[in-house]
Design goal:
The complex is a heterodimer. By secondary structure, chain A is α+β, with helices and mostly antiparallel strands. Chain A folds into three domains: 172 residues, Uridine Diphospho-n-acetylenolpyruvylglucosamine Reductase, domain 3 (2-Layer Sandwich), CATH 3.30.465.10; 81 residues, Alpha-Beta Plaits, CATH 3.30.70.1710; 75 residues, Alpha-Beta Plaits (2-Layer Sandwich). In chain A, 32% of the residues lie in helices and 25% in strands. In chain A, strand 6 and strand 7 form a beta hairpin. The longest helix of chain A is centred in the middle third of the chain and has 15 residues. The two termini of chain A are 31 Å apart. Chain B is α+β, with helices and mostly antiparallel strands. Chain B has four domains: 94 residues, Uridine Diphospho-n-acetylenolpyruvylglucosamine Reductase, domain 2 (2-Layer Sandwich), CATH 3.30.43; 118 residues, 2-Layer Sandwich (Uridine Diphospho-n-acetylenolpyruvylglucosamine Reductase, domain 3), CATH 3.30.465; 108 residues, Alpha-Beta Plaits; 75 residues, Alpha-Beta Plaits, CATH 3.30.70. In chain B, strand 8 and strand 9 form a beta hairpin. In chain B, helix 10 crosses helix 13 and helix 14 runs antiparallel to helix 15. Chain B is globular. Classes of the chains: A alpha+beta, B alpha+beta. At the A-B interface, strand 7, helix 7, helix 8, helix 9 and strand 16 of A face strand 9, helix 8, helix 9, helix 11 and helix 17 of B.
C-alpha cells in the first residue's frame, strides 16, 4: 500500500529533478499509443480500494489502483454495474492482471453500451489527482449534477496520464438489467448491417448494443424481463425487412465484442480503433480489404486488425476520413514512428501545449505517450 | 452585492474608435450602440444585476464572430458572449467596457441525419427548436432546461444545462458530438464531429460548462434520440420530508430509473395548486412526481412497481395517471412552479445547489430553520433523483434590506450543500451570482489551477471576465 501523499511527494521530487515518469496502474495497456520515454515507472497499483459506495445515490468512489473486477463485484452485490461496460484489456494486450479504474478512466475506454448510455468519461463525477509538480487537486465531486467550475474530470479522462496522475475516481453507476437478449439479423454486407442497426437504434425500444460480426447485425436489449420480451417482439417486426432474425442468449457474445476478442486479431497484427459516423462504416470496410474488422456502436466504432506496417497505418488513417483513429496495439517500431492519433489544428495544438504546461510544468508525465515530443 | 472590476479607462476613452472598428467588420444592422437599443442586453435571468455594455454585436456567421473576437483581442476589449440571456446566475451580465456578442441571429438548423442520429445547428437555435425540427419523425433532443422555449443551444453548451429528465438522459455534455469553437484570437476550430470520443484531449468536455471563459461556440452537433413510445406520471404525497426522501431511495434502489423524479415541499405544493389547480394534496408535507416511459403495458408495469414501493411509506395519497391528459395535469403544477411562486412573492431568488440524496431530510430541515432566521419564505422544488435542489427564496426587490437578506440566505444554503458533500451549482452555473462562494468549494490551489487553464485559452482574460472566479488573487483582473 502507498498513500496519495507519498505518491505526490514522489512526483514532486521527479518534477524538481526533471525526471520523466511512466505513469500506469497495472500497466495493462502499456502497448497502447506511443512508447513512453521514461526510465522510471510510477504505478498507482498500491493505491487501491473502494472508499465510498452509496447504491441508493448511484455513486461509487474508488482509489485509482482498484482493479475493475473488485469494483464490478461490489456493484453486483447490490444489483448494479459500471454503465460504460469497459473492455478487459487482457484480450488485446495479453498479461494476467486486470485493468484498474484509474487506467480505464485515463484511457476513456468504453464498451458496447456506450452507444446508448455514454462513455466512461460521461459518468465520472469527481476526481482526485496529482499535477506534474506534485500538487494534489480535486475536480467535480460525488453528486450526479455539478457544473461548479471548469470540468477537469473530462479533461483528465482520456488524457493517458499526461495531464496528471489520477488517485481517486467517483463515478455514477446504474442498476444492472434484470434481463438481456440479442437479436441477430443475417445481412448480405456491411451497408445492410448498418441499415439494420440504424433502424434498431432509431426505434423507441432502447437498444443497448449494436454490433456487426461477419454477416450478422447484433442488437441487444437490456431491461426488466417483461420489457425485454415485449421489445424483442416489437424489434423483430421493425427489423423483418432487413433479413432473417434469430434470437440469441449467449452472455459471452457481448463480452467478446466489448473486449475485441471477436476481432480475432493474429498475435503479430496491429490493432486500431476508428470512431466515425455509422453510415461511414461501409466505406471504411471497402477501404480496408486486407484487414479483419469488427463493428460496434451501431457501426460507428470499427476495430481493425492488420499488418503492423506503416502502409497499413496510412490506409487506416485514410479510411477513418472525417472520423478519428487510435493505434490501439502495435510493436514499438511502428507506434514510435507514426502519429497514433490524429494531429490537431495548429491553434488547438498551441492551446494544448499551454494546458499541458499548466498541469505538468516540467513535462515529466508520460512524455511522448500521445504525440511525439509532447 | 457582487463587485465588478473597474472599466478599463483606455477602452472607455477609445469607445468611438472601437465602435468604428466594429462597424467595419459587421453589417450595419448587426451592431447596436445606442443606449435605448442596448437596454435589453443590460441584464439576463438574474435581473438584480444590470450594466450597460460598450456595444452589442449580433453576428450572423461564424466568420463575423471570429472577426469581432480578433478585433477585441487586438484592442484589449472585453467580450461577453450571450445566447438568449436566460442565465439565472448572471452569466451574460455585461461590463461597461465590454462588447456583448449575441448569437440570436445564428438560428439556422444546418443538418439533420436520422441514420447517424445527429443534428448540426447554429448556436442561436433554441433548445426546443431542435426538438421541434425532429419531433415529426419521432426524435427529440434530450436535455430540457425549464427555460427551453427561450434558451439557446450555444448557451446550453456554455452552461452545461440540465433539466428534469437528466436522470435518464444526462445533461448537455452527455448529448454533444462536436462544436465549432472560436478562440479569443479569432481562430475557428472544429472540435469533435459527427462521431463520438475523438482521440486526444477532451476539448469538448472542458468547453462544455465553461461559462464563456475559454472561447465561443457558433455551431453545435448534438445527438438526437428516438422518443419513447409513451410516458406517464404518477404523484405520491407523504406526511413528512424524511419519509418522502426514503421513498426516493427505495425507488432508485429497486433498479428502476424513472425518466423524471421531482420533489415539492409544502409551500411549493400550495403555491402551485393555487396557480394551476392541478389537484395536488394540500395536507402533504412532500410530494413526488414520478414519470416512466415505454409502451402502455410497460408504463403500467413500472408504475405498479413504484406504487407498491411508495405504499410501504404510508403515503397520504397516490394518483396514477391513466392517460396522457392525466399525466399532463400532474405535471401542470410543477411546470408552472416558478410562475406560481412569483404570484405569491414579488421577487424570488432561485438557488441551484446539489446534495447527496441521502442528506435530503437534513438539508431541508436546515433550510426551514434558515427561513425562520432570515424572516424570508422559501419553497422547495427539485430533481430528487439527482439531488439538485431549487429552493426559491422569496423577497421584495423594492426593499434593499430584503434583497441583501435573500442573498445571504442563499449563500448559507449553498455553503450547507458543500458542507454535506454537494456543490454550489447543479445546472445554473456559477456566473456572477456564486462567484465569491467558489472559495467554499475549492482550495486556493484548485482555483489557481482552473484560472491557469482559462489563461491557457485566454491569456489576457478578455472572455466573460469577472464571472466564475473570485477577483481576489487574480493577477490579471485585480490590477
Amino acid at each position: 500500500m502507498i498513500t496519495e501523499a507519498a505518491l505526490a511527494a514522489d512526483i514532486a521530487r521527479a518534477h524538481a529533478a526533471r525526471e520523466p515518469l511512466l505513469v500506469e496502474g497495472h500497466g495493462t495497456k502499456r502497448a497502447m499509443l506511443r512508447p513512453v520515454q521514461a526510465a522510471r515507472t510510477l504505478s498507482t497499483r498500491g493505491l487501491s480500494g473502494i472508499t465510498l459506495y452509496k447504491p441508493a445515490e448511484l455513486v461509487i468512489s474508488a482509489r485509482a489502483g482498484t482493479p475493475i473486477p473488485e469494483i464490478e463485484a461490489a456493484l453486483a452485490e447490490k444489483g448494479q454495474h459500471i454503465i460504460a461496460e469497459p473492455p478487459d484489456p487482457r484480450a488485446i494486450f495479453g498479461g494476467d492482471q486486470p485493468a484498474t479504474i484509474g487506467g480505464i478512466v485515463a484511457t476513456n475506454l468504453s464498451g458496447p453500451r456506450r452507444i446508448a448510455w455514454g462513455a466512461m468519461r460521461d459518468h465520472v463525477l469527481g476526481i482526485r489527482a496529482i499535477k506534474g509538480d506534485g500538487e494534489i487537486f480535486r475536480s467535480g465531486g460525488r453528486v450526479l449534477k455539478n457544473v461548479t467550475g471548469l470540468d477537469l474530470c473530462k479533461l483528465l479522462s482520456g488524457s493517458h496520464g499526461t495531464l496528471g496522475v489520477l488517485t481517486e475516481i467517483t463515478f455514477k453507476v446504474l442498476p444492472a438489467p434484470e434481463a438481456s437478449t440479442t437479436l441477430a439479423v443475417t445481412v448480405p454486407d456491411i451497408a445492410a448491417g448498418v441499415r439494420a442497426l440504424s433502424a434498431a437504434l432509431g426505434s423507441p425500444f432502447g437498444v443497448s448494443g449494436a454490433a456487426i460480426i461477419n454477416n450478422r447485425a447484433l442488437i441487444r436489449l437490456e431491461d426488466f424481463s417483461e420489457s425485454v420480451r415485449y421489445r424483442a417482439a416489437k424489434l423483430r417486426d421493425t427489423l423483418a425487412p432487413h433479413g432473417d432474425i434469430t434470437q440469441l442468449d449467449d452472455p459471452g457474445l457481448w463480452r467478446d465484442i466489448r473486449d475485441g476478442t471477436a476481432l480475432a486479431a493474429a498475435p503479430d497484427d496491429a490493432v486500431w480503433r476508428i470512431s466515425a459516423a455509422p453510415s461511414a462504416a461501409p466505406a471504411i470496410a471497402a477501404a480496408l480489404p486486407n484487414a479483419k474488422l469488427l463493428f460496434d456502436w451501431g457501426g460507428g466504432l470499427v476495430w481493425v486488425a492488420g499488418a503492423a506496417t506503416s502502409a497499413m497505418h496510412q490506409a487506416v488513417i485514410a479510411a477513418a476520413g472525417a472520423g478519428t483513429y487510435t493505434l490501439f496495439r502495435a510493436p514499438d517500431a511502428l507506434r514510435g514512428a507514426v502519429p497514433v492519433i490524429p494531429p490537431e489544428a495548429a491553434p488547438l495544438a498551441a492551446i494544448g501545449a499551454r494546458v499541458k504546461t499548466v498541469l505538468d510544468p516540467a513535462g515529466i508525465l508520460n512524455p511522448g505517450r500521445m504525440r511525439a515530443g509532447a | 452585492m457582487i463587485r465588478l472590476p473597474a472599466p478599463k479607462p483606455d477602452v472607455m476613452a477609445r469607445r468611438p474608435e472601437i465602435i468604428a472598428g466594429l462597424a467595419r467588420l459587421l453589417p450595419a444592422d448587426a451592431l447596436i450602440t445606442e443606449d435605448a437599443r442596448m437596454k435589453p442586453y443590460e441584464t439576463d435571468g438574474l435581473p438584480a444585476y444590470r450594466q450597460m455594455p460598450l456595444a452589442v454585436a449580433l453576428p450572423r456567421t461564424t466568420e463575423e464572430v471570429a472577426a469581432v473576437l480578433r478585433f477585441c483581442h487586438d484592442n484589449g476589449v472585453r467580450v461577453i458572449p450571450r445566447g438568449a440571456g436566460t442565465s439565472l446566475s448572471g452569466g451574460a451580465l455585461p461590463l461597461a467596457d465590454a462588447v456583448v456578442i449575441g448569437l440570436m441571429r445564428m438560428n439556422r438548423i444546418l443538418d439533420v441525419n436520422y441514420d447517424d442520429r445527429f443534428a448540426v445547428v447554429q448556436a442561436g437555435v433554441t433548445n426546443i427548436g431542435i426538438t421541434k425540427a425532429v419531433e415529426a419523425d419521432g426524435f427529440f433532443y434530450a436535455p430540457d432546461p425549464s427555460s427551453q422555449l427561450a434558451c439557446m443551444i450555444g448557451g446550453n453548451v456554455m452552461m452545461n444545462s440540465g433539466g428534469a429528465h437528466c436522470l435518464k438522459y444526462g445533461v448537455t455534455a452527455n448529448n454533444l458530438l462536436g462544436v465549432k469553437f472560436v478562440t479569443i484570437e479569432g481562430d475557428i476550430i472544429d472540435i469533435g464531429g459527427t462521431h463520438v470520443d475523438a482521440a486526444g484531449y477532451d476539448w469538448l468536455g472542458i468547453i462544455t460548462g465553461s461559462e464563456g471563459q475559454l472561447g465561443m461556440v457558433t455551431e453545435v452537433t448534438v445527438r438526437i434520440l428516438r422518443g419513447p413510445e409513451g410516458a406517464r406520471a404518477m404523484l405520491a404525497a407523504f406526511d413528512s420530508i424524511p419519509v418522502a426522501g426514503a421513498a426516493v431511495d427505495a425507488i432508485i434502489g429497486s433498479g428502476i430509473i424513472p425518466v423524471a423524479l421531482e420533489f415539492m415541499d409544502r409551500p411549493c405544493i400550495h403555491a402551485c395548486e393555487a396557480f394551476a389547480h392541478a389537484g395536488y394534496p394540500l395536507d402533504a408535507e412532500a410530494m413526488l412526481i414520478i414519470e416512466v416511459e415505454g409502451s402502455e403495458a410497460e408504463q403500467d408495469a413500472l408504475l405498479a412497481r413504484i406504487r407498491d414501493i411508495c405504499a410501504r411509506f404510508n403515503p397520504i395519497s397516490m394518483k396514477l395517471a391513466e392517460s396522457a391528459e392525466q399525466s399532463l395535469a400532474i405535471w401542470k403544477g410543477r411546470k408552472g412552479a416558478f410562475g406560481a411562486v412569483g404570484r405569491i412573492s414579488p421577487d424570488y431568488l432561485c438557488m441551484d445547489g446539489t446534495i447527496p440524496t441521502g442528506e435530503l431530510a437534513h438539508v431541508l430541515g436546515r433550510i426551514t430553520e434558515l427561513s425562520q432566521q432570515y424572516g424570508l419564505g422559501v419553497a422547495n422544488v427539485f430533481h430528487a433523483g439527482d439531488g439538485n435542489l431549487h429552493p426559491l427564496i422569496m423577497f421584495d426587490a423594492n426593499d434593499p434590506n430584503s434583497f441583501a437578506r435573500a442573498e445571504q440566505f442563499g449563500a448559507d444554503i449553498l455553503r450547507l450543500c458543500v458542507e454535506v458533500g454537494g456543490c454550489l451549482t447543479g445546472e445554473h452555473g456559477v456566473g456572477i451570482e456564486k462567484r465569491d462562494l467558489m472559495t467554499v468549494q475549492f482550495t486556493p490551489g484548485e482555483l489557481r489551477l482552473q484560472r491557469n487553464i482559462k489563461s491557457a485559452f485566454d491569456p489576457a482574460w478578455l472572455l466573460n471576465p469577472a464571472k466564475v472566479f473570485p477577483l481576489e488573487d487574480n493577477p490579471v483582473l485585480a490590477a
